[in-house]
Design brief:
Structural class: mainly alpha
Number of strands: 0
Strand content: under 5%
């Protein structure tokens, strides 16, 4: 795992999201960045991932996105301080 590349990718993803001109790939990259920045599954910000999936689903509704969001929601409820 190359932390420098993860940091660079995360910064580019944040830049895209804050520009308010983002699409499905930017959102998928943001979800991947949240996973990549966590040290393990327990440290993952599942609430953030759920929110990103909500936005992704609103612009690109699909059963796969809905399923992934549901799984992230379950993890968010199980994690300490989750939704």
């Amino acid at each position: 795992m190359d932390k420098n590349l993860i940091t660079e990718g995360s910064a580019l993803g944040e830049q895209a999201l804050t520009s308010r001109q983002f699409g499905t790939y930017s959102l998928q990259a943001a979800i991947a960045a949240v996973h990549a920045n966590a040290t393990d599954a327990a440290a993952t910000d599942w609430t953030e991932i759920v929110g990103l999936y909500d936005v992704l689903f609103s612009i690109n509704p699909s059963p796969v996105i809905e399923l992934n969001r549901a799984v992230a929601g379950c993890d968010a409820r199980r994690s300490p301080g989750g939704a």
